[in-house]
Structures are given as C-alpha cells and as structure tokens.
Amino acid sequence: MGLEMIRILYQYHRWANRRLFDAVAALGEETAAREMGSQWSFPTLKGMLGHIYGADWVWLERWNGGSPTGLPADRDFATLADLRGRWDAFEQEQQAFIEGLSEEDLARVVAYRDTRGNPYSLPLWPLLQHVANHATHHRSEGATMVTLVSSSPPPTDMSVYHLIASGQLRG
C-alpha cells in the first residue's frame, strides 16, 4: 500500500468516524449512554465511539515508539462533547503523523507491546491499514446500534466519501 493510498485512507477514516459521531451526538447524551446489551463489542454508543478513538490513540502511541498499557476508557469522557474535544485534538496529531510519512517510513518495523505486555513487531504499513479497518468494524456495530434506537445513520461507504469529496454528492 503506497503513501498516497494511506493518506486517502486516513482522510476517509476521519470523515467516516465524524459522520457516525455526529449521528450519535444528534441522538443525545442519554441515548448515547444507553446500555444496548453484551452482544456488542462495547455496550453503549458512547463506549463504541470511545473505543474507536482509543484504539487510534494507542496505535499512534505505538507508531511513535510507545507501548501504552491500556486505552482510554468510556468513563474518561463525561460527555460526548468531552470525547469530541479530545478526538479533534488527537485527529490533528494523527493527521500530522500521516502527512509526515515518507514512502520509506511505510517499511519501518514497529516494535511494540500490546496492552498485556506481549511483544510484537510489524512494518508500519499493515499497522496503518489495520487501524482504519478496525474502526470500520466498530463503526458498523455503532451504525447498527443507531438504527435500533432511531433510524439508519448516513452511509459511511468509501465510495460515498469519494463522491462527496469530488463534489458529485452532497454531504
């Protein structure tokens, strides 16, 4: 996967995350905090969004040489506005990292420990791809949760992103 593809993937990733976040925020704090059951990776919409943010955060830490022992928890964000504020600041940091990469950086091996302390190492490019793919899984769970409490949220398909970005569709 080349550098330009990574940059486009992360533009899409930020757009899709924000699109789902906005749909959840429109439902209000009470709905976002409602327990939806143990069948979900995270039982609340707020928790699901917090996990997407937290996973992005932990991976950026790893790419920069760190090995955090945990992700930010749902309880770390009193409100959706708190989460959005932290996420906005983080997205700028993540975007700067992505924009600062060179083609050679994609092959750099990242050695890290997971949150249990197990050591791993992989080239940067599949880790970058993993983060966006991981979020897609949790966005789909979140979109299903939104559908159950309201109606289907706006689509986050990559083709929709490209059509909006190219001016062929309205966002």
Topology of this protein?
Layout: H1 3-27, H2 29-33, H3 45-63, H4 80-99, E1 109-113, E2 119-123, H5 124-149, H6 158-165
Antiparallel strand pairs: 1-2
Entry keywords:
single chain; 171 residues; mainly alpha; two-stranded antiparallel ribbon; 6 helices; 2 strands; 60% helix; 6% strand
Description:
The chain contains six helices and two strands; from the N terminus they run ααααββαα. The protein has helices at 3-27, 29-33, 45-63, 80-99, 124-149, 158-165, and strands spanning 109-113, 119-123. Helix 1 (3-27) runs antiparallel to helix 4 and helix 3 packs antiparallel against helix 5. The longest helix has 26 residues, at 124-149. It starts with a helix and ends in a 6-residue tail after the last helix. The model has no long low-confidence stretch (mean pLDDT 96).
Structural class: mainly alpha
| Number of E strands | 2
Main sheet attributes: strand count, strand direction, barrel closure: 2 strands, antiparallel
Strand content: 5-15%
End-to-end separation in angstroms reads 27 Å
Helix content: 55-70%
Strands ordered across the widest β-sheet: 1-2
Overall mean pLDDT stands at: 96
